[in-house]
Predict the structure.
Amino acid sequence: MPIKILPDEVASQIAAGEVVERPASVVKELVENSLDAGATHITITVEGAGQKLIEVADDGLGIPAKEISMALARHATSKLSSAADLFNIETLGFRGEALASIASVSRFTITSRTRESEVGARLVVEGGQIDSDVQPIGAPAGTVVRVEDLFYNVPARRKFLKTDSTERRQIDDLVTRYALAYPDVRFHLSQEGRSALQTTGSGDRREVLAALFSTDIARQMLEVNAVYDESRVSGYISPTSLTRSNRRGITLFVNGRWVQDISLSTALIQGYHSMLMVGRYPMAVMFIDLPPKQVDVNVHPAKSEVRFTNRDDVFSSVQRAVRRALLAYSPVPPVQGQVRWSPPEPQPGFDKGGWQRPSGGQSSFSPDHATTPQPPEKSQPVVQPPLSAGGVPLLRLIGQVGSAYLVAEGPDGLYLVDQHAAHERILFERFMEQRSQQIPSQALLDPATVELDSASARLLEDQAEVMKNLGFEIEPFGPNTFKVRRMPSLLAGSDPVAAVRSVIEDFEEDETPLQNEIEAKIIGRVCKRAAVKAGKVLSVDEQKALLRDLEACQSPRTCPHGRPTMIHLSIDLLERQFGRTGPR
Ligand code: ADP
Ligand code: MG
């Protein structure tokens, strides 16, 4: 076939494929136009899951009658005039493509009136063909776009649509997210004749949050609000106790634009570093606002991706903001109701520090001789349990069980501490702390040799710099073989070969290889390997030291991989279990 320029209709259908993938994308473009027009009230009506009708009505600026047919041409926009403007975009639209694209794949009617003009104007377009002249018509100020029979002329597209309920949910999700991002705008969405979302435009985001998540979840979400130089990170994130198995609970807005950016959501997740179980993800609605010059929005026809001039700065602002919010609210669990506790009287068999054998050779339990502790009276004064820096109550060691768990008493009950997870957490935090300076390292008297397969050897070479920063001195020693000469002092006594191997074991390429994060990840691995194993008998002094060190941690309740370090059995729970409270 000879080369020819495609007819306009074909060209716009091709372009439409990129912009208008499904009914929800039509809703997105139209809502964005309304927001750009300064609307304070946007009403969206959907029928037939968006295939029969999508109508978006707003009270925005409107379009002058003489420009209305222009609005429907491709590359026609009022939001941009020179190429330079492209790098300083303050509106949601700028490509001048949406209306033309939508009109080319539907029966399309636009009605608009500016505040200055007395009559409105209407234009009807069918499958991209302008049907009639612009008609004068009485209309309220603002714009109404009606999109009927979407994809009627592109049957192939219809085939790719999901079930009606999925398409409807996509629209619900989309409108809810925009309502969250623009709390000052009143949104009303009705689907199949029923009201699906109604916001008041009062400016209160939490009100909308309940529509996106449930009321219960919305209530638990933590507020984030941080300003860094010219940028600002705000929104809501889930506490560590609320997670999902995928990233879909994360919504990100950059300068008022909903973006899907894996690396940005990764940065957010990394803010939770070591606080979540492996494979669990937080929920969040996060708004990142920065000077338009620092964001390139012209990356994708659907404008759902952006690029940042200072990517690392943006990522680290997000991480820091998340971290700060988490540390401010967690990990102290809420002290429920009244805590009934008074400092325990010294009792036979116990001393302030730990468990001792009852003196006098008495080795069997004899209830007659034990002072029976009385259940505390309800009227006793409320004592706030003393908390250590990291929010764990100061614990009194009772002993070790199963060579794996420490048993301790806190003011609010019994604690079982997993010795391996706890030690992992302690090592991890020490490393992270030392990392701000030079991590002290120790020469090995007897340098160890590690032999690796070639893929692992390449990985180790790639991470050479990181390993050096962490206090390892590793040098090549023949093909795929390395000599470990020094290792971090923190790991003194542990097996250097095992430590090096743990670094590269199942090291998958991270989605965002922020140097910082690679290091943290490696530290996490090394600590896991080096931490005291379950099955090791610890001396009383070692047990005590472990508890003290854990109390001093910033996030003592989880190991760096997110597993709990301790289980708490409250006095309340014990009382209930023994039938001391509640109905008898
Ligand atoms: P873009 O939004 O990228 O400029 P569109 O095709 O979405 O491109 O819209 C074309 C133009 O039509 C816009 O630049 C704007 O001037 C006008 N327009 C579209 N929708 C509205 C609306 N709801 N209110 C006012 N003007 C609108
Ligand atoms: Mg637009």
Observations:
- The pocket of adenosine-5'-diphosphate (ligand 1) is lined by residues 29, 33-34, 37, 58, 60-63, 71, 76-79, 93-100, 143 (CB under 6 Å).
- DSSP finds 17 helices and 23 strands in the chain.
